[in-house]
Amino acid sequence: MEMYLPILFVVSLLFSYSHGSVLDFCVADFSLPDGPAGYSCKKPAKVTVNDFVYSALGIAGDTNNLIKAKVTPAFAAQFPGVNGLGLSMARLDLAVDGVVPIHTHPGGSEILFVVEGTICAGFISSSANTVYFKTLYKGDVMVFPQGLLHFQFNSGNKPALAIVSFSSPSPGLQITDFALFANNLPSALVEKVTFLDDAQVKKLKAVLGGTG
Predict the structure, then answer these.
(1) Which carries the bigger pLDDT value, residue 136 or residue 23?
(2) What pTM was computed for the model?
(3) Which of 47, 57, 83, 91 could be cross-linked to 28 through a Cys-Cys bond (beta carbons 3.0 to 4.6 Å apart)?
(4) CATH number, span 44-172
(5) What is the reported pLDDT for 16?
(6) How confident is the model over 109-154, as pLDDT tens digits?
């Protein structure tokens, strides 16, 4: 064992040195394109304190829409200071009867903290399609594992507000209903893969703005 100690010491020094050279931050440079690894870093000389401050989460979202809900993101695309840090936030406003339909975030896990109101939330496991859902009240927190289908809706009689945190600066979003019925995916194909009849598919496409 003693003969390996010098080797381990050298390796530990190299490891410490490699971590010592890591940048403090990588503020997003919006003048350059976004890529799989995120935005390129803004030159340090151009970074200001405002890159690390974001105020939009303090403003109530407009829930006058089809789903009676509004998500206000603080992702890397809106909040350059979180780029490369492995985290982000969002505000969720839900009017009475508001709903965030079944959706997934392929790029990160999510934690939801209820600030006001009552929210029913849940997710579905990918292995056994087990459903985990619960009615959440002010002060409750629920976690949604990365990539799993999940939902939230206002289950009370007054507006609800939640603050959401993600384990990625760009968690991504795909809403199942919109993916199926809000584009030009042919109705015959949708019917084939969902077991819905033609009338149901056409109705949903009409509601969500799809064609085909």
Answers:
(1) 136
(2) 0.87
(3) 83
(4) 2.60.120.10
(5) 45
(6) 999 999 999 999 999 999 999 999 999 999 999 999 999 999 999 9
Angle between helices 198-208 and 187-194 (to 10 degrees): 120
Report yes or no: 208 and 177 within 8 Å, Cβ to Cβ: yes
Mean model confidence pLDDT for the chain:
91
116 among annotated binding-site residues = no
10/75 Cα distance (integer angstroms): 39
**19 belongs to an annotated ligand binding site:** no
Question: pLDDT at position 93, please?
Answer: 98
Instruction: Check residue 35 and report its DSSP letter.
Output: B
Per-domain residue ranges of the chain = 44-172, 179-208
DSSP structure string for 85-144: TT-EEEEEEE-TT-EEEEEE-TT--EEEEEEES-EEEEEE-SSS--EEEEEE-TT-EEEE
CA–CA dist 107, 72 (Å, integer): 18
